[in-house]
Amino acid sequence: MSAGMAGRRRRKSRTAGGDAGQSVFAQTVLLLLGAMTIALSFNLFLLPSGVAAGGVSGISILVERLLGLTPAVTQWALNIPLFLIGWGLLGRRFAAKTLIGSLVLPLLVLLTAQLPPPTHNPLLAAIYGGIGVGLGLGLVFRARSSTGGLDLAAQLLHRYTGLPLGLAVACLDGLVIAAAGIIISPENALYALIGLFVTSKTIDIVQTGLRVSKVAFIISAKADAIGDAVLHELDRGLTKLTALGGYTGESRTVLMVVLGQNEVSRLKLLVQAVDASAFVIISDTAEVLGEGFKR
User: Fold this and answer.
1) Where are the alpha helices (H) located in 91-241, listed in sequence order?
2) Residue 40 pLDDT more than 90?
3) How far apart are CA 141 and CA 137, in angstroms?
4) Are 238 and 257 in contact (CB under 8 A)?
5) Is 284 helix (H, G, I), strand (E, B) or coil?
6) Which of 216, 201, 214 is CA-nearest to residue 256?
């Protein structure tokens, strides 16, 4: 191997190592930022109003109401055993992504415990606390990490009982909310459901973004003419799919077009101008990656 080739390989290796280091650094920053957002939302909104919207944080609120125990202590007491069980049963790779979140989140909850809440209205607390927790969890998930807690328990339940993961999470959160209805009040459980709903929707927004794209399927005898109009007038790409008519059994061309929300009206006008009898289906799509769309 020549000295030039060796030098290029060393430079490439150093570059790759630097990129990997930046990637790990960025993920760590996202994880810490997400954990801080969750901790602030918990102490400013959820804990003061007793909104136990599922998870280990919800259990810690109930324990605080029953025994007066600091929520951070309860969270550590639950997170650490769950982490150790997850490490033993789900593997080191999974545990490594959970360790920091399981330890740091209760610490941040402890450090921000003395902040005064901006509201004692339980509805506002459920909404804004749900938004904050959803934002924080979304950042943690983007860091490809986890804060542990009942998510770990749900994954164990999923693996060893075959229960779908989403249903396992819902069951565990449901048990916490039901306990809140008994320990605190039925009204509190209803606020907790609102908080849980807002959290799930906020996570979706953080994961997929606010921009909603549309996908259109166009069935027409003048598919080629419509395709030309889409390509040259709307300036959007398209895909031609071959389909069979369910009633006639005849071969048909279906145009699939992905476009921005502000382009829907223009597309409908173009199709209408070429073939007024065209069959058009337009629906939302959660995320689109590729040329012309976000990456």
Assistant:
1) 92-111, 122-142, 150-161, 165-183, 186-208, 223-229
2) yes
3) 6
4) yes
5) strand
6) 216
CA dihedral 47, 49, 54, 55 (to 10 degrees): 0
Beta sheet of 279-285, edge-to-edge order: 239-244, 251-260, 213-219, 279-285
Whether 105 and 145 have beta carbons less than 8 Å apart is answered as: no
- Express each pLDDT in 181-219 by its tens digit: 999 999 999 999 999 999 988 988 887 766 678 899 999
Can you name the residues that pair with 66 across neighbouring β-strands?
Answer: none
Cβ-proximal residues to 217 (8 Å cutoff; 6+ apart), any chain: 254, 255, 256, 280, 281
For residue 224, the one-letter residue type is: D
Q: Is 279:245 a contact under the CB 8 Å cutoff?
A: no
Residue 6, class by beta-carbon neighbours within 10 Å (0-12 exposed, 13-18 middle, 19+ buried)? exposed
Helix H or strand E segment including 21: helix 3-41
Q: What are the tokens at 50?
A: 């007793």
Please answer whether residues 143 and 23 qualify as being in contact, where contact means their C-beta atoms are separated by less than 8 angstroms. no
| Predicted confidence (pLDDT) per residue in 163-179, tens digit | 776 678 788 889 999 99
The verdict on pTM exceeding 0.85 is no
Shortest CA distance to 145 belongs to which of 209, 94, 72, 90?
A: 94
Start-to-end CA distance of the chain, whole Å, equals 38
